[in-house]
Protein: DUF3742 family protein
Organism: Pseudoduganella danionis
Amino acid sequence: MKKITAQSVYNFLEEVLQAFVRVARFGGRLLRRMSPQAILAAALLLALIVAVLPLALVLFVVFMVFKVMVGASFIHGRRDPRFKDIN
């Protein structure tokens, strides 16, 4: 295994920076070619992905946990008292 040196870290960071610059240039060229309607649609889709979708997933998980907890409490209350746990 190679040793990690300052030069190798510098080379890695320079490569990452070059990749970001290439992505930014590609995005800029893409935005210049898009119509205003397409830019609006892309912005709305990005907003949906970044904001609304995680919120919906978190709320789904919270309500599912609540449902399981409520269901477990009702199931525990409906057990037949004639049968005892073996513990």
In short: The CA atoms of residues 13 and 19 lie 10 Å apart.
